[in-house]
Amino acid sequence: MTTKTTNATTENDTPYAPEQAPRLQWTKLAPEVYKAMVQLDAAARQGVDPVLLELVKLRASQLNHCAFCLDMHTKDALAAGESVERIVQLGAWEESRHFYTEKELAALALTEAVTVLTDGFVPDEVYDTAAKHFDEAELTHLIASITVINSWNRLGVTCRLTPGHYTAGQFK
């Protein structure tokens, strides 16, 4: 495992842990896969509210422990006008329901059901609630977007992409 030492320190001059280099530069080694993922991502997000989409991407990335995607989508959400408070509360959205609209809550529940398939399926109640808030085309694109962020997360976690260097909108 390769590590990169940085000169970053805390406010009291205590050094941070060294930054780890990515395991694999997958985008350079398989550029055709990367291009296909970018195209799939663009197709999936059609018609989905961009701020809602950032919440969905953040929640899936939290569940998948993808630090790179958490960094990216936090910055993109802030740049899109999302509040720090709603981003912070996202990890406990079920207890912080009053920060989100019913439509956002339905999308977050669907995100969790699609991301964590512990029961082997998406429960009817979760799907039916989402279907009340999204028309069929919008729901299809939302499900596709959730699926795509889960794929990005799996690539990021497996290749151990390094968070902290992304600039909002860098890949748009």
Structural notes for this entry:
- The chain is an all-alpha fold.
- The chain is 58% helix and 2% strand.
- It contains eight helices and two strands; from the N terminus they run E-E-H-H-H-H-H-H-H-H.
- Residues 1-6 have low confidence and may be disordered.
What is the percent of helical residues?
Answer: 55-70%
Task: Please count the helical segments.
Answer: 8
The helix/strand class is: mainly alpha
> Which residues form runs of ≥5 with pLDDT under 50?
1-6
* Largest sheet entry: 2 strands, antiparallel
Strand content: under 5%
Order of helices and strands: EEHHHHHHHH
From the N-terminal CA to the C-terminal CA, the straight-line distance is 31 Å
State Rg: 17 Å
Report the strand count: 2
- Silhouette: globular
Q: For the largest sheet, list the strands in their spatial order.
A: 1-2
